[in-house]
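Format notes (please read before filing issues)

Several people have asked whether sequences and structure tokens are stored in separate files. They are not. Every record keeps both together, in the order shown below: the sequence lines, then the token lines. Line labels are part of the format and must not be stripped during preprocessing.
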Amino acid sequence: MRRWDDDERFTGLCDAAAMLPAVRQLDAAMRVDGWVTEDPDAHLLPHLRAVPGWEVLGERLLDDGVYEVVARPVEPLAGIDAHRAAIRLLSAIAEPSFLVRQSAENVFDCVTGVMPGDPPGFASHGHLVRLVVTQ
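Then the structure lines:
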């Protein structure tokens, strides 16, 4: 099966093991009780609202610590342009570790945080954000 429209190789260059230490470190941090930071309305929302080209329509903190944000792009977006614009919006709250995965159509799950030893020297902490994009 092709990996993109003009893929003729059907396979890549190698595995992705080179990044596993960082992924494992993030995985371990995410399992620490209390790692998800409190008060996302104060810590995240002002940065998301300040991103040009987006309007934040609503937000709520879910019981599992996920901060769900509903936002609409000012200009209609589709396909990869919508995906990339969602990542640009989420990058406004990016910390040294930052992972975004599109989990459904118009839904982007993000974890971002600080690992022990990361600059600028804050204690390890993180945020879970689910961005729901409406048009």
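For reference, the curators noted about this record: Helices lie at 20-30, 40-43, 45-49, 79-90. The first strand starts at residue 54 and ends at 61.
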